[in-house]
Amino acid sequence: MIDFELLASVIRNNDNFVITTHVNPDGDAIGSEMGLYYVLKQQNKNVKIINHSATPYSLQFLDDQNVIEKYFPVTHDEIIKNADVIFFLDLNVLGRVVSMTEVCKASKAKKIVIDHHLDPEEFYDLAFTDKRVSATGEIIYDLIKKTNLAELNFEIAQALYASIMTDTGSFRYDRTTPKVHKIAAEFLSLGVDSEFVADQLFDKGSLGRLKLLGKALTSLSLNNNGQICSMVITKKDLEETKADESDIEGFVNYTLSINGVKIGLLFYELAEGFKISFRSKGNIPVNKLAAEFGGGGHLNAAGARFNGKKMNEYLPRVIERAEEYLK
Ligand SMILES: [Mn+2]
What angle do CA 172, 231, 22 make, to 5 degrees? Predict the structure, then answer.
């Protein structure tokens, strides 16, 4: 159980806050950051949101006043070093802040994780985590409800609605609990426009993104009697379609949309090395499969990065290991 009073007292008793999240932020990352930002602002705190990655176009509607800053050492290192508290949202491994890792380590700030992934790495002073909740945004909602830190207003509701909508796959995945729907109902009653948010989140793609999706879908192949589906995206695919890494968000879900598939794998080449996204149905623990390759994540959604490695050499081995999890 999360001790919300402890979290609230940390907020009340400090003045200078930095909020950050993981590389390639998704709707939960940006939504929970904005939600927490508004909570802290209602307490009249000094708050900076500083991220390794720029905010993807599809999430910029959550930050219409441009408060999120992309990390730039000259501008931000002193702020990060001298903050009282750094909040790490929606991540369980410090390395997920990539270029900000070292300055965060060197900071005198209290390091606080708010997250819903499994098995957090111990880099923090305090962690407020619950792997049963749908999204980090749901924890921010509970913080508001269980303490009197902030009033739930439209801005917060819209940010947290985007969090939950993203991380539940639009209210489809297993942690779409009755509570999640009650929270969503409350957000709608505060004026959140479900059609607008869905349009922003899902219908703001580029032509390049769809062309890349075309190539990715053409690459699909099945193994293990149709129970494992893999998708491959090469550097060349990205170049030819003029898409970028953030466009790949969500592609992996197509692997699970085929009848009979229990494990979906997306292999994609980076400038240096490659990355795999793992997805599964039911109780197949792809976070354990990912961990075999130095990655991690949730039971049904995980990832691993391979720096300086060749994708083609790993592909058959990963599929072979995945087969073990179907036995
Ligand atoms: Mn999340």
Answer: 60
Distance 70 CA to ligand 1 centre (A): 20
Q: Does 90 lie in the same domain as 117?
A: yes
Check whether residue 146 and residue 234 sit in a common domain.
no
- Alpha-helical (H) ranges within 83-234 are 101-106, 136-146, 154-167, 178-189, 194-202, 207-218
- Stretches where the chain sits below pLDDT 50 are none
Q: 29: CA distance to ligand 1 center in Å?
A: 6
* pLDDT tens digits, one per residue of 161-206: 999 999 999 999 889 999 999 999 999 999 999 999 999 999 988 8
Residues 249 and 146 in one domain: no
Ligand 1 centre from 151 Cα, in Å? Answer: 23
Ligand 1 centroid distance, CA of 318 (Å): 25
> CB of 83 within 8 A of CB of 18?
yes
Spacing, Cα 167 to ligand 1 middle (Å): 6
Task: Give the CATH number for residue 211.
Answer: 3.10.310.30
How much is the pLDDT for 254? 96
266 forms beta bridges with 231, 277
Cα(173) to centroid of ligand 1, in Å?
A: 13
The pLDDT tens digits for 84-112 are 999 999 999 999 999 999 999 999 999 99
Q: Which residues surround ligand 1, an ion (CB under 5 A)?
A: 28, 90, 136, 167
Ligand 1 centre and the CA of 277: distance in Å?
15
Contact assessment for residue 116 and residue 139, using Cβ atoms and an 8 Å cutoff = yes
Q: Are residues 215 and 305 in the same domain?
A: yes
